[in-house]
């Protein structure tokens, strides 16, 4: 199994989306790459912790490649939007790809370059090694499974596999 962390706005919908992909074996939501140890949701929402709302993804690379995961990710984000996704505003909603294996960086950078030709504005998605990940509160985990009519900034047609 391999791992990667994606930030793409509110983590509820991002987690649900990745859970629908064949080859994704486990996900959890949390807070990535900030400067506060074990932040709470309320702290992250102040935009003062430096953390991204993010989704930790474990996947079987014999079933789904990193390239395919990245293609799926780019489908659900506006990588040119800084400190927001959809109606959600704040630095915690910025986009980011946080790798756990240095060998993945080249694949991620090449994927970003392929995406950039689709946009006039520069892609501002952070691409960094994963420095830290703190699990989100239990009520956030699998939120849209627990709350099928819950809020999601990702258009529903993106959930069709």
UniProtKB/TrEMBL annotation:
One of its GO terms (biological process) is cellular response to oxidative stress. Transmembrane segments: none annotated. It catalyses: [thioredoxin]-disulfide + L-methionine + H2O = L-methionine (S)-S-oxide + [thioredoxin]-dithiol; L-methionyl-[protein] + [thioredoxin]-disulfide + H2O = L-methionyl-(S)-S-oxide-[protein] + [thioredoxin]-dithiol. It comes from the Bacteria. Keywords: Oxidoreductase. One of its GO terms (cellular component) is cytoplasm. The keyword Oxidoreductase applies. HAMAP family: MsrA. Has an important function as a repair enzyme for proteins that have been inactivated by oxidation. Catalyzes the reversible oxidation-reduction of methionine sulfoxide in proteins to methionine. This is Peptide methionine sulfoxide reductase MsrA.
């Amino acid at each position: 199994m391999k791992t990667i962390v994606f930030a793409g706005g509110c983590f509820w919908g991002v987690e649900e989306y990745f859970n629908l992909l064949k080859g994704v074996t486990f996900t959890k939501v949390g807070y990535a790459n900030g400067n506060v140890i074990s932040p709470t949701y309320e702290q992250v929402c102040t935009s003062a912790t430096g953390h991204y709302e993010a989704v930790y993804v474990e996947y079987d690379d014999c079933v789904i490649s990193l390239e395919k995961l990245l293609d799926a990710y780019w489908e659900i984000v506006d990588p040119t939007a800084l400190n927001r996704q959809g109606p959600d505003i704040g630095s915690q909603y910025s986009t980011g790809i946080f790798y756990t294996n240095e060998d993945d960086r080249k694949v991620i950078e090449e994927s970003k370059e392929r995406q950039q030709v689709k946009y006039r504005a520069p892609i501002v998605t952070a691409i960094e090694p994963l420095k830290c990940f703190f699990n989100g509160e239990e009520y956030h985990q699998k939120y849209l499974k627990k709350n099928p009519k819950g809020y999601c900034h990702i258009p529903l047609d993106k959930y069709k596999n």
